[in-house]
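I'd like us to work through together how a protein chain folds, taking it slowly. To get us started, please write out a protein record for me. Go ahead whenever you are ready, and we will take it from there:
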Amino acid sequence: MSTFLPFVQPSQIRLSRTSEGDLLLELFEATELTADAAQKSSSHSFLLDANARIHLMASLKEALLQPVLPSVPRRLSLSQSHPVSAPIVAPQPPMASSATVDLEARYLNALRQLNCPFEFERSIQFQSDQIKAGRMLAGHDLRLPSSLTQPEILALLHELYFPENHLEALMAQLPTSHHLHLGFEPQSETALFKIYLESDVEPDPPVRYRAWKYAPFSEQCFTSIYTPLRFSSPSQLSQLLLTHFSLLAGPVAIEPSLRALLQSLFSIAEHCMYRTRAEDFELLHVTEDQSDRQSFDLNLYSSRLNVEAVLEQLLLMFSSLGLDQQRCLLSLQQCLALPLGHISFGYHRKQEPFFTLYYGAASVV
């Protein structure tokens, strides 16, 4: 079998069905797949069963439904006047082997039925053993004249299978909240739906977001609190974070991979803060009641940089987690020219270092 690069043109790909009903994916050398060329032997052939077909179609849908996103300065800011079309996906019939795909369709269909403006952004999470793409977040301004009513919000939560035993706590926070955010994260054989309430009301201690993150049809629900922390310079930011993780580590030194990740993050922060004041950025400390997660979220939209501007530091962050840089670079191809959003980082629920790159928030009507 000859050498074949993974960068192929559509004319080098052929899909067909076998007599048994399986899907056959064939890749050809860099020649146009004409009627004559179709008779040639393929360079690579893959026989896809039902489960593989579902994941292939989900990946194709992810690539084809990327919205055209204008640049905006802040995460989930509705002050921009450049709307784009909402991602359109027809709901798919439930299938036991396609739970994740079906839940994603339900999430996107719920957004389409809101009949009001919202903000839409994507994210990719990087862990030492995996890259999690397909993450989405939509935000709706509850202060707008056309904002959702309480009955509409209740109907929306029902549509997204919100757990009944947490409904009273969420509705109690709704009157003091000015934004409602709806998130989606694919997981193996299922997905996490996420509901965030954002508020400027400052109790003691202050809380910017309260979030409920749950897997439909299960008892799994994480309740997260996002509290703002102030800093006035890159050096103060680095000191604050290093102190926090040093206290968390106790007598043991900060894990080398996390320390390396933080050093690259500080370089990104310094680069961004060179363009605007540190006060224009927001740092949030994230904790969860049901896990030992310890992480932070740094909003960088105010820098007005695109993702490619910090690519060198991102590659170093990939290396600090032991990830293959080429694989990570391929995962970023669709967002390099989009606005750099915010970066969450720290220890996830499994107590291992991670970071998540958010990008390209845009108005959707």
In short: The chain has eight helices and 13 strands. The CA atoms of residues 54 and 98 lie 6 Å apart. The first helix runs from residue 50 to 64.
